Write the structure tokens for this entry.
Amino acid sequence: PTMAHSKALLVLENFIGGKFVPCSSYIDSYNPSTGDVYCRVPDSGKEEVEAAVKAAKDAFPIWSSKSPLERSQILNKLADLIEHDLEAFAQAESKDQGKTITFARTVDIPRAVHNFRFFASSILHHVTECTEMPAMGCVHYTSRAPVGVAGLISPWNLPLYLLTWKIAPAIACGNTVVAKPSEMTSVTAWMMCKLLEKAGVPPGVVNVVFGTGARAGEALVCHPDVPLISFTGSTQTAQRITERSAPHCKRLSLELGGKNPAIVFDDADLSQCIPTTVRSSFANQGEICLCTSRIFVQRGIYSEFLKRFVAEAKKWKTGNPSDPTIDVGALISKEHLEKVRTYVKKAQAEGARVLCGEGVDPLALPPGNQKGYFMLPTVIAEVKDESCCMQEEIFGPVTCVVAFDTEEEVIRRANSVKYGLAATVWSSNVGRVHRVAHRLQSGLVWTNCWLVRDLNLPFGGMKASGIGREGAKDSYEFFTEVKTITIKH
Ligand code: NAD
């Protein structure tokens, strides 16, 4: 290709009322593995959000009156179309986000497909409640109806995966939506819009406005005709959304950050625990809300664990995300990489030991990736519980390993952070795993495994990790309004 051709930028457009519409201004989007600007994303504001909400409102009467079966068939068709283009979606997600092509191929895009199939099926199986009061001659029953225009706001770490986790239940239940993906990872949402018409999604049912949180996101949160907001992102942004939506008393679902503990008892099967905990720490560059970042190991096995854990972490290869043999890709942005590095420096300044990774081992990158935002998996030991590395969400390939003595002590220490999203417990004592799981302040507890999900069951966090749950029944409840009807005969 000529220089001009190779430098041609991908330019995205908003998708409103079934049509792609250009925007008056754009934001640069970077390829995190090269540091180059490769795409321009609409910088939407109030005007674009207004048009999208209007299109969604106009589409609501027709879409909400379709039967669940009709909607289910459309969702299944959309799933098939995304699956047909799986490789193109995976390539785009890897390029846009910095994640490895392997992760995008095996996790992100298959899960996006599954989200549509799952809710296409799930919506067919709900039953409402009915009670009788014979003495009063009454029966009561509940009915559920879609709420209206749903505002959906998603983060950059699992772009299409998390956006479809919201779009699928919202439209399956008969709502219409205005979605705003992260301005840093907008490409796969735009690609999905190209398939909607073919899938049979009527114009206006799914609208996507691209842009920043401050402009497009807030315009959506503050719009009076958007009665519910499903948000996944940071706790700080959730606070802002709560404030801004308060005058409208909006229904909010907030899926936020974590500081997830792994607790390893001395009777754990380390041959399972170590590779899984390396994965739970470093998968997707540690940029998953469910990633482990505090590992508590019982004192008797602490040094053996540390030795084997570091050896396993060093096996993870960092480099060009499009190389299928690579385990760790690039972090999302230059700013984020700097932030993650700062945490490692702070830990060192406090006297903690960095056992591998950042600042300890050499990072060799291919010539084309020298300006990318890479960092090696980093393991830190001897960190104090009150250190910012043990309290704050780092959201990068950094994990801390510390020793503990008793069950009572480790429960207290695991709970001593503001977050409560996901915990893992490793032990072969069944009584202990139940006891500990019940006492952890965490929306999800995995024992002897990590990230095994059944979408039927609730997903979400406690404390600063969120409000509300999502899943088959929970999403159905969130995206519908319930009514109790009483009939006297
Ligand atoms: P973020 O909060 O910065 O942004 C998330 C989204 O909100 C983006 O689309 C952004 O543009 C938008 N936004 C920002 N400010 C806004 C505002 N004032 N009004 C409306 N929208 C606004 O989060 P991020 O950095 O993109 O994502 C990382 C965070 O997401 C981490 O904290 C991570 O733990 C969390 N996360 C949570 C889950 C979960 O399910 N609990 C899943 C993935 C990520």
User: Anything to note?
Assistant: The first helix runs from residue 3 to 6. Confidence is low (pLDDT under 50) at residues 1-5. Residues 153-157, 162, 180, 182-183, 212-214, 217-218, 221, 232-234, 237, 240-241, 255-258, 289, 393, 395, 421, 461, 466 surround nicotinamide-adenine-dinucleotide (CB under 6 Å).
